[in-house]
Amino acid sequence: MNVLILGRGKTGSLVAEVARARGHEVAVLCAADNPNGSALTASRLTSSDVVIDFTTPHAVLGHIDACVKHKKNMVVGTTGWYNELPRVKQLVENNKTGFLYAANFSVGVNLFFDVARTAAAALQHQYSGQIFERHHAQKKDAPSGTAAAMQKIIQAASGTDLEITSFREGDVVGMHELILDSPADRIYLCHDAKSRRGFAEGAVRAAEWLAGKQGFFDFKDVWRGL
Ligand SMILES: NC(=O)c1ccc[n+]([C@@H]2O[C@H](COP(=O)([O-])OP(=O)(O)OC[C@H]3O[C@@H](n4cnc5c(N)ncnc54)[C@H](OP(=O)(O)O)[C@@H]3O)[C@@H](O)[C@H]2O)c1
Question: Which strands form 98-101's sheet, in the order they lie side by side?
Fold first, then answer.
């Protein structure tokens, strides 16, 4: 495929590396190439089969609007825009394009979501719960999209809204903890990303899966089929 990657930061650079290694033709636009999404014109997008976005919460919505209106399939890894999800879903459906997003593209975290969903039963048996997330000091949004997704999953499974505590320190790639505490014992569940490679591989495989599809997809619902 011809893959256009938006963002040449920590994750976007690795997505480009993984996409090339999987045999795709890759072009990358960084912030200077694409002020306020201005590079995403119909003629620039014609040559791309799919656009993958790992930019910033501030930039991503303009990118989504441009790509969807030009009928380009899109994979979005950028977090911090989910209050706009209903509007984006409607836009995608109106334009009949393919759109796939994830708070976290690693298979390990998506398995961890399933573990958290199961563990949420504890909240109906005298346990209290807390979510902690740690990321590198440059991360722009808090809480992390992954922690917010976990909170939503636990809310749906147990009816309980857990508090999220965020830490920004050093160069932590991404650590998420769910602690369940009762008078009798304590359960610790932790996912600790060792590198960004898992995110990059998941995003490229998601783009391959999305080829030729229409619809609005969340990676947590499709990763098993990749
Ligand atoms: N879903 C997942 O699995 C996952 C995994 C990791 C990260 N993320 C999310 O992905 C996003 C990026 O993370 P990161 O760690 O890679 O951040 P990062 O290193 O800060 O990279 C973001 C990049 O986006 C660029 N950018 C900003 N506006 C742009 C525009 N209009 N067009 C093209 N590029 C633009 C920035 O360029 P300049 O440096 O020139 O400003 C920067 O290089 C964050 O929202 C993060 O939470 C998601």
Answer: 25-29, 2-6, 50-53, 73-76, 98-101, 215-218
Q: Flag whether the pTM goes above 0.70.
A: yes
Residues ≥6 apart with Cβ < 8 Å to 184: none
CA of residue 160 to ligand 1 center, whole Å: 32
| Sequence letter at residue 191 | H
In degrees, rounded to 5, the angle at the alpha carbon of residue 2 between the alpha carbons of residues 46 and 87 is 65
**Measured distance CA(219)–CA(26) in Å, rounded:** 22
In this predicted model, what pLDDT tens digit does every residue of 123-156 receive, in sequence order? 999 999 999 999 999 998 899 999 999 999 999 9
Separation of CA 12 and ligand 1 centre (Å): 7
Q: Is 78 in the pocket of ligand 1 (CB under 6 A)?
A: yes
Given the structure tokens 């796939």, which residue do they identify? Answer: 100
